[in-house]
Design a protein that fits this description.
By secondary structure, the protein is an all-alpha fold. It has a single domain, classed as Heme oxygenase-like (Heme Oxygenase, Chain A, Up-down Bundle), CATH 1.20.910. It contains 11 helices and no strands. It has helices spanning about 10-20, 30-35, 40-65, 70-85, 90-105, 110-115, 120-135, 135-140, 150-165, 175-195, 200-230. It is an enzyme of class 1 (oxidoreductase). It comes from Serratia odorifera DSM 4582. InterPro entries: Haem_Oase-like_multi-hlx, PqqC, PqqC-like, Thiaminase-2/PQQC. Pathway: Cofactor biosynthesis; pyrroloquinoline quinone biosynthesis.
Length: about 250
């Protein structure tokens, strides 16, 4: 979409929401999981690799806060970190994701070790965190606007997974349930920031590109998993069956 003149807040919001056509809910890997066509290995691989994304979210949000000079914005944004890291007796989203890992049959130590995280997943997530560190805080904050589409994807998992994958322990779904309300709250704040900040053609055009960048990241995660768990071509598959790729955070 090429913007010719400044869009009204309503028009710009519609343009942002139109990007939902490229959300990873439409990726073949996710469609297979939704339709009950995924194997145990594919479910476990998805959970293990998405853990790297989940643990990077509060790091990304801390970077945004570090660049933001507005106390009122930081006071709101910090809730995102608390949601994932936990506070005042609340376990937080990262702990809930570890329980999802256990629910699909992955030992906690395996998930925490990040030994299953594919290089393509790691590179994509690291690009997101580095963008948040280097961009102005408004642009970095608005890159989170894929949350516009998140409630639908969480609900789709709650609707389909128990039916198709009875071997998954029901307690593992707590993360998806908690994110339904949290994502709606975060969308309200993030969208308000975007509509206030993007008041010129240049800013609106750039923000659409940034949102596409974030969509590209989420899609790329599933592309990497498709190579490894659907096509059975993980990194170095033509050389060795061993997982020789790096498994530590280097950036």
């Amino acid at each position: 979409m090429t913007i010719q003149h400044p869009l009204s807040p309503q028009e710009f919001e519609a343009a942002l929401r139109a990007k939902g056509a490229y959300y990873h809910i439409h990726h073949p890997y996710h469609i297979a999981m939704h339709n009950g066509e995924a194997t145990r290995e594919q479910i476990q691989g998805w959970v293990a690799n998405r853990f790297y994304y989940q643990t990077s979210i509060p790091i990304k949000d801390a970077a945004i806060m570090a660049n933001c000079p507005q106390p009122e914005t930081r006071r709101k944004w910090v809730q995102r970190i608390l949601d994932h890291d936990g506070y005042n007796g609340s376990e937080g989203g990262i702990e809930a994701w570890l329980r999802l890992g256990e629910a699909v049959g992955l030992p906690r130590e395996t998930v925490l070790s990040e030994e299953l995280v594919l290089p393509g997943v790691r590179f994509a997530v690291d690009a997101y965190v580095n963008f948040a560190r280097r961009a102005c805080w408004q642009e970095a904050a608005c890159s989170s606007l894929t949350e516009l589409f998140a409630p639908q994807i969480h609900q789709s998992r709650l609707d389909s997974w128990p039916q198709h994958y009875p071997w998954i322990d029901a307690e593992g779904y707590d993360y998806f349930r908690s994110r339904l309300g949290q994502a709606n709250r975060d969308v309200e704040h993030g969208l308000a920031l975007a509509l206030e900040y993007c008041d010129t053609v240049e800013k609106q055009q750039r923000m659409l590109e940034i949102l596409q960048f974030k969509l590209d990241i989420l899609w790329s995660l599933l592309d990497a998993m498709s190579m490894a768990y659907t096509l059975h071509r993980p990194p170095y598959h033509s050389v060795t069956a061993a997982r020789v790729w790096h498994n530590q955070r280097l950036v």
